[in-house]
Amino acid sequence: MPHCKNPLFQLDTTSERIRRHGKELWDRLRARGAAPEKILDDRPLRPFSLGEVAEILGVSGSYLRQLSIDGLGPTPELGTAGRRSYTLRQINELRAYLASSRPKEALKFCPRRREGDKLQIISVVAGPASTTTSFYLAQGLALQGFRVLAVDLDPKGSLSEMYGYFTATLPVDNASMYAAIRYDDHRVSMRSIIQKTHFDGLHFVPGSSELGEFEEECSRRYHSENFRYPDASIRMVSALKEVDADYDVVVIHCAPECGGFLTVGAFEAATGVLVMARPQLADIAKTAMFLNFFSHFVSLIEKAGRSVNYDFVKFLVTRHNPHDVSEQEAVTLLRDSLGDDLLTATVWESDAIREAGLKNRSLYELSAGAVGRSAYEQAMETLNSTNAEVMDIISEVWGRPPMYVSQASRSKTEGKANSQSRGLSK
């Protein structure tokens, strides 16, 4: 059979053929709503049902319903069969109203920093599920009423994509943390690179390939100055100080390369550090090796004459299968070694979390039906328990009594008893 030749195809160069394949795939994905049209995917955040809002605020659904009937607080949207729902902005308006009308519980409803409370900067170091942990921690804090800034230091923008910022496929110019800490005359203010997200109270600094340029520049300076430690860390600290008064918590997602200058900057800027550990012996060995890197780079900062005093260094077990005997033994090993520095809660391996991630969404953004109710509720339980522990640590640093772990436990118990009634809440 003679070979069929296409003259048009023969005119294509290799680069043109590759580009054509890319365009064909992109167009087909876009037709199915699976490809971003621009750098920022400005999707809206879904509204929250009355039952969800009651659980978030730690009050009863009947109380919220009566507030709505009496015309107090924000006016919820009325949906099918009169079911009430609130946007996150309205939830925060409810917080302000409840803090004002119930002053003895003001901290419960409005947990933001008071005068004298220092900004909490939590560096989530590279490790198993560190991107997911950073993502859910920042969103969970925002849902609880904190003003949050999330910073992505990954040149590949792995956290950025989860927020809808597709900087890896559609690169940005001078719009990542690089822009606020670079060495040349194009350095800009920290405020100018902060982006809004669809979560009220949560802002974001995207990661991009520009961050790799900063690492290269720091490396050149390091070697040209006889291995004198450069001021990359100081630049990170200074940039965050510019927005100190605007936020309660900063969550920094560290770059995958644990030895990079950006990561060291995150170490120096941090008031607390969260380290991931997967409950398998090989992964625990990696965590132990990381701690040697961590210690070394903190020592470099100390040798430069700058003290490093963290409010906390905590460890979190992620991707945990609680039914696996070997993993149970690994968690015991970690707990015996780390004591109270290992969070009590563990983040379970979850199909629901994985499926939400494939959609570039969090479970907070999805309804239970999107991933299956049972898997959804189980995943939310483990995520909320983890976030509650971190929030209680922050409360302790600010001199407040812990309340989030007990609130999460109470919500879990009430949820199992009243899941049907909450689903019918109006």
TrEMBL record:
What are the transmembrane regions? none
Q: Does the keyword Ion transport apply?
A: no
The organism named in the record is: Rhizobium leguminosarum
Which ranges of the sequence are coiled-coil?
none
The AAA domain, residue ranges? 127-291
Would the keyword Glycoprotein turn up in this protein's UniProt record? no
Instruction: Give the protein name, as stated in the record.
Output: Plasmid partitioning protein RepA
Compositionally biased tracts (Polar residues): 406-426
Query: Known Gene3D superfamilies for this protein?
Result: P-loop containing nucleotide triphosphate hydrolases (3.40.50.300)
PANTHER family the UniProt entry points to: P-LOOP CONTAINING NUCLEOSIDE TRIPHOSPHATE HYDROLASE, PLASMID PARTITION PROTEIN A
Q: Where is this region: Disordered?
A: 405-426
Annotated keywords: Plasmid
